[in-house]
Amino acid sequence: MNKILNTKDQHPVISSKDLSISYELHRERTKLIALKNISLDVKKGEFVVLVGPSGCGKTSFINAVAGLVEPESGVINVNGKPVKGPGPDRAMVFQDYALMPWKTVESNIRIPFEFQNLGISIEDQNKRIKDCINLVDLNGFEKSFPYELSGGMKQRVGIARALVTHPTILLADEPFAAIDAMTREAMQAELERIVNQSNQTVIFITHSIDEAITLADRVVVISYRPGQIKEIVNINLPRPRFEQEIKLLPEYSKLREHIWRLVKDEAFRTTKGD
Amino acid sequence: MRLSGLQKVIKMEENNQNTERLVYTGWTFKEVWGYSRTTVVTILNLSIFFILWEIWTSSGGVNPLFLPEASNMFHELWKGLTTSAPPGAVFSGSIRDHLFHSFSNLMIGLGIACVIGIPSGLLMGGNKYIETILSPYVWAMASLPRIALVPLFILFLGFTMKMQITIIVISAVFPIIINAWAGVKTTEKSLLAAAKVFGANRRQLYLNVVMPYTLPFIISGIQQGIGRGLIGVIIAELFGGSKGLGYLIQRSADTFNSALMYAVLLLLVVMSLTLIQLTRWLEAYVAPWRKVEML
Questions:
Q1: Minimal CA–CA distance to A209: which of A266, A168, A161?
Q2: Element (H, E) at B194
Q3: Distance between start and end Cα atoms, chain B
Q4: Which residues of chain B lie closer than 8 angstroms to A23, CB-CB?
Q5: CA of B205: which chain A residue's CA is closest?
Q6: CA distance A243 to A248
Q7: How many whole angstroms separate alpha carbon A174 and alpha carbon A172?
Q8: Which residues of chain A neighbour B188 with C-beta distances below 8 Å?
Q9: Within-domain flag for A32
Q10: Per-residue pLDDT for A22 more than 80?
Q11: Which of A150, B229, B241, B249 has the fewest CB atoms within 10 Å, i.e. is most exposed?
Q12: What phi and psi values does residue B49 have, to the nearest 5 degrees?
């Protein structure tokens, strides 16, 4: 918890200044402004959760950090350098898992080594893959194909693949959205444990306010079109957290109420006009 | 653990330890039926069909010129497949010779169609400019009934094997192009994003994501190409030629040999089904996940 407070001498790991992202809509000859003037500093080891209505540009922000999308204006720095494209310091977990269906669990986790030369020997790669499979508890499924696994297991493969290169930054785009409630809570706890263990910086997108409060050090509420930071809510609840346990705390319902009001206003705006 | 009829895993206590053992149990009726149900029903179904056909035609209720007795048809088929024409004969009534001609033409045509179609489809999917330039021609040719082109090819190439193969290629190449093209275009965006995030460059994106994703599409393109190509074979041989199954159909009609004609038709059905089934197996082998999604 205190890790956010005693970070005086630390540079932010991710730093965006006046970041704007827009997409050309050729048919309508207009521009869709996804994000406008986002300034956000994320410190090392911090768990930042973005919430906001659908289409508010949360994914655009994560994609910009990942180097998949170029900002229209403003800067986005990772470890003090402007983002020029994807890099091994950042890894991503996807909502629809994005596993190659023709590859086994093991070779899906090997993908980051396959595509880039990180100077890691094959033995070390194998060891890391084995460790990651252990970490996400998929022992015995190394040779299985994604279509043989349940949704929760698929996402554990996705997480293992993201962790195998030991990235300092983990980006997660609604990773648990398609997973049932029971499995989701177990996986939230697992993610919290993994991230604390390796002191990773995380940017996490979710639609669920409960999930946001359970996981976040800070919850960033983003407004609807153009996506701007509406408010940043600090979550100072003790860790490790379990959704069902922290729900009983009096602060929890206050936080939930507060964030819910912020998100609700924006969510209602999405139903008007567009 | 999969159980087969011959061996079963039996859990038993041995020296106070739980052990698993493979034990011979023999086949139960239920297991035999479970494995062979489809085959047995299909064989029965077809047998009844041909027996009814035989009864109807041999009872004299139908002119044998229109519908021969099933036994005659099978006899012609057997004779045609087991005997060859004597050397120097002007016309061969042997199905085998014509089958070989048509089949090798089909294979050559399909081969050329793949060599042209797969790279073109991949390029069209991968490059916007090539796509824009080629797509009107592809759609025009794909929607044009290929039979309308036959007189043109006869004009260009005469009644030659070249003409026949050209028609097969023209028939088979477009489904292959369109499927490969669609495969590249429909490659899941999240797979591409994931590959990029994990460091794939442009070449790796194509080789390691787009290509494996497109492979099953290409196979189903070839599957459609086989069907179209077979039509091309028959059309080419019906229009002009002195060899091949299409020619044999024409010839047997001219000589009022309906048993031979039906034998060739049956052979065509079997040939087409076999080729398509082979590509289905290939597809299930290279892309087992698609089969699961389809179910």
A1: A266
A2: helix B189-197
A3: 23
A4: none
A5: A115
A6: 9
A7: 6
A8: 96, 98
A9: yes
A10: yes
A11: A150
A12: -60, -50
Quote the strand ranges of chain A, DSSP E: 14-25, 30-42, 47-51, 73-78, 81-82, 90-93, 169-173, 201-205, 218-222, 229-234
Q: What CATH number is associated with residue A57? A: 3.40.50.300
Look at chain A and report how many structural domains it folds into. Answer: 1
Residue A114 placed within a domain:
no
The domain limits of chain B are: 1-49, 82-294
Tell me: pLDDT of B27 over 50. yes
Does A102 lie at the interface with B, CB-CB under 8 angstroms?
Answer: yes
A23 touching chain B per CB within 8 A? no
Cβ–Cβ of B197/A90 closer than 8 Å? yes
Instruction: Give the distance, in angstroms, between the CA of residue B67 and the centroid of all CA atoms in the same chain.
Output: 27
Q: Which residues contact A191 (CB under 8 A, 6 or more apart)?
A: A159, A172, A215
Mark which residues 160-219 of A lie under 8 Å from B by CB. Answer: 161, 165
B29-44 pLDDT per residue, tens = 888 888 888 899 999 9
CB spacing of B197 vs A66 below 8 angstroms: yes
A91 closest CB neighbour out of B197, B212, B292:
B197
Assess if residue A244 is contained within a domain.
yes
Q: What is the CATH number of domain B82-294?
A: 1.10.3720.10
Q: Which of B83, B84, B56, B80 is nearest to B70 (CA)?
A: B56
Q: Using CA atoms, how far apart are residues A31 and A20, in angstroms rounded to an integer?
A: 12
Share of chain B above pLDDT 90, in %: 50
Cis before B136 (ω within 30)? no
Both structure tokens of A121: 């020997």
ipTM for the whole complex: 0.84
